[in-house]
Automatic annotation (TrEMBL):
The keyword Transferase applies. The keyword Transmembrane does not apply. PROSITE patterns: GNAT. GO terms for molecular function: acyltransferase activity, transferring groups other than amino-acyl groups. Residues 9-175 form the N-acetyltransferase domain. PANTHER family: GNAT-FAMILY ACETYLTRANSFERASE (PTHR43415:SF3), SPERMIDINE N(1)-ACETYLTRANSFERASE (PTHR43415). Keywords: Transferase. InterPro entries: Acyl_CoA_acyltransferase (IPR016181), GNAT_dom (IPR000182). Gene3D superfamilies: 3.40.630.30. It holds the Pfam family Acetyltransf_3. This is Diamine N-acetyltransferase.
Length: 175
């Protein structure tokens, strides 16, 4: 049986009470580079998003789960499945841990491992892919450590703060 609980974190569905965390995260300009956001989100729009967060991944082609700490039930980030393609058995994965103090403690590794178990055993996917900025050394290390293979580099893919950045495409196959 699948369990979305690890040693230090668990993954859960979004709840209406997540509005403040979601509002702060989505409007954090530090994250706009990776999310493609260019304008702030209103609480109204995010409340509408939360009202529809229960919709099935087969319908909306994406799924966002909260990353919560087991010891104090604190929400520290999100993990997203996107571009869900059941015909070709694949999806993209991305995660964000909001506060820098929560990073580099194994949470990302544990979270991605949990989501890999979920997509391969429950959704029956063949592959997961991740898009990582080349200068995001922590994420590059994370995906390499978890067996994702670097399969390509998208040159000058992201324009940020006056210059272009390369984005690495990682892929993990369920063999």
């Amino acid at each position: 049986m699948l369990n979305l609980t690890g040693k230090t974190v668990y993954l859960r569905a979004l709840e209406p009470d997540d509005i403040e965390f979601l509002y702060f995260l989505e409007n954090s300009t530090d994250l706009w580079e990776i999310s493609g956001t260019t304008t702030p989100y209103s609480k109204f729009i995010l409340e509408q998003y939360l009202e529809n967060a229960h919709r099935d991944i087969y319908d909306v082609k994406q799924l966002r789960l909260c990353i919560c700490t087991k010891d104090d039930d604190k929400t520290i980030g999100f993990i997203d499945l996107f571009d869900f393609d059941p015909k070709n058995h694949r999806a993209g994965v991305g995660l964000v841990i909001l506060n820098k103090e929560e990073r580099n403690k194994g949470v990302g590794s544990e979270t991605v491992s949990l989501i890999c178990d979920y997509v391969f055993s429950v959704l029956g996917l063949r592959q997961l892919f991740a898009n990582v900025l080349e200068d995001n050394k922590a994420s590059v290390h994370l995906f390499e450590k978890l067996g994702f293979e670097k399969v390509g580099v998208k040159k000058d893919w992201i324009f940020s703060k006056g210059s272009y950045k390369n984005e690495i495409l990682f892929q993990k196959l369920n063999r």
